Amino acid sequence: MQPGRVLLLQPSPTVTPAGAGQPSDLSQTVVSWLPISVEPWVGDVFSTIVIIVLAWAVSRLVVQLFGRRIAQFFRRPSLTRTALRGIRVTIYLFAILSIMGVWGLKVGDIGLSVAVFSAVVGVVVAPIVGSFISGIFLLADQPYEIGDMIELADRDQRGFVEDITLRHTKIFTLDNSFLVIPNGTMRDRDVVNYSAEDPRMRLSLDVLVTYESDIGEARTLVERAARQVDNVIGGGPDIRVGAARYPAAPTCYINEYGDHGVLLTLRYWVTEPYKLLAARSKVQTNLADLVEDADVEFAYPHSHLHFDETSGAMELSMAEQRGREMEFPTDGGEPGPSAPQSSDADGE
């Protein structure tokens, strides 16, 4: 028998990826603290819970410590809230990365999946991304701020801005309801801001009085009716709007000599923009009470018809008139041929 070589076949060692099936250092530390022996996955779950609780506590602590300084730096509630939300998101993002490390996951492991997922749902998230971009422009342009009273011109609704995020704007309406409008559509709307710079607002009221009324007394009564309302500015220095200045006190002007009377226009300022209708109603109520005993009369559209020699003549048919005379004679005689004759008292 000739000597030969013998080949020994041994199984090759299996290479286990780092972190796969092995508890992390944090999980091992947590498990070592426990008085009993548990499975490694239990330590991973417990570590995940600890990270989430720590992230929540740290985010609240950071907001309490730096919230006032951030508010003083930005001086705008919307930017302050956005900055605080960014701090919370950053803390929770680190927490998510820590949880991924506990379970043995890496960013590169999910990079391909995220790319495929983003390509699939890109059409779905496009409006959300557009709202985020619009939110950035809204925060930069400052068309309105938290606490401002605005009006949506297309919906004819007024309310106070409750919150401004990168995704939507929340409005608390005067009807005690909430409107949540995406910033993408909010930028395309016509928004009237009643309290951007100055909450005072000027209103107008038209009053039509007759020509026979005392115009001077009428103007005085109209101004007095406005001054008697609580939230109407009764006087003071002129109010500046841009380059123009307007009287702060209620002022009544002669607007027009119309067909049915003299049109007076009252200009007055109110201090609360959310009570415009109430202020207007009180002014008109006071005016109605003041003119009862005054030489002032409200005008209304009416017409008088005058006929004279230049108005023309009314035509009358003579044949129709003769027929009426024969049927009903005026001299007391017998009725004409057109009147039916009765054979007896019953008319038969």
UniProtKB/TrEMBL annotation:
Chief location bin: membrane
Cellular component aspect of the GO annotation: plasma membrane
Localization, UniProt: Cell membrane
Residue stretches spanning the membrane: 45-66, 87-105, 111-140
One Gene Ontology molecular-function label: mechanosensitive monoatomic ion channel activity
A Pfam family matched in the record: MS_channel_2nd
Domain of life: Archaea
Topological category with respect to the lipid bilayer: Multi-pass membrane protein
Positions of region (Disordered): 320-348
Residue span, Mechanosensitive ion channel MscS domain: 128-195
InterPro entries with a match to the protein in the record: LSM_dom_sf, MS_channel_C, MscS_archaea/bacteria_type, MscS_beta-dom_sf, MscS_channel_2nd, MscS_channel_C_sf, MscS_channel_TM-2
Domain Mechanosensitive ion channel MscS C-terminal, chain residue ranges per copy: 205-297
UniProt keyword list: Cell membrane, Membrane, Transmembrane, Transmembrane helix
Family: Belongs to the MscS (TC 1.A.23) family.
Name by which UniProt lists this protein: Mechanosensitive ion channel family protein
Organism: Haloarcula salinisoli
